Amino acid sequence: KHMANSAAILDLPYTYLDIVRPGITIYGLFPLPLAKRTIKLKPVAKFKTKIIFIKKVDGGESIGYGRAYTTTKETTVATLPVGYADGYPRLLSDRGKVLVRGRRAPIIGRICMDLCMIDVTSIPGVQVGEEVVLWGRQEGKNISVEEIAKKTGTINYEIICMVDKPRVSKVFIKKGKPFKVKSLIEDVVPD
């Protein structure tokens, strides 16, 4: 018998019965903003990608669908191969930020199905292939799942679940090294 989900595990020990269902706490996240912090949780997931294209554009140039964003000065724009089809919320268009070299870079224009663009003007020397963190930690800085949830008017559960798409490879880390990769095609165990 079981009743206790993540919130009950934290607040209602009498609901444990035979087993519990930790859910969101497996990811190191609290189920509710008001949940008791009776245990210490550390977020364990990161959603990241790499820059695939960089271009300097003049002021007055439109970026993305619908010409929704127009640069006001010369801007270095980096393109990321992630969009709403990958579980990255479209509601972050012109509102969200990502981490590049541990610094926040704003999303500019609309998040597309397969791509989004960021302004890396304030981060000199950014190169194609550099890691970009959409949520999670990088170089001691963090964009939390809760921050993304708040900006998009939802809950942390939804942000985590949105990324569970076949298009998004999942890399499982054990003792600092990948031990399993779940990708679009198959599960792979690295050498």
Automatic annotation (TrEMBL):
GO CC, any one term: cytosol
Domain Alanine racemase C-terminal: 44-173
GO terms classed as biological process: D-alanine biosynthetic process; peptidoglycan biosynthetic process
Cofactor: pyridoxal 5'-phosphate
InterPro entries per record: Ala_racemase (IPR000821), Ala_racemase/Decarboxylase_C (IPR009006), Ala_racemase_C (IPR011079), Ala_racemase_N (IPR001608), PLP-binding_barrel (IPR029066)
Keywords: Isomerase, Pyridoxal phosphate
Matching Gene3D superfamilies: Alanine racemase, Lyase, Ornithine Decarboxylase, Chain A, domain 1
Entry's Gene Ontology molecular function annotations: alanine racemase activity; pyridoxal phosphate binding
Name of this protein: Alanine racemase C-terminal domain-containing protein
Protein species of origin: marine sediment metagenome
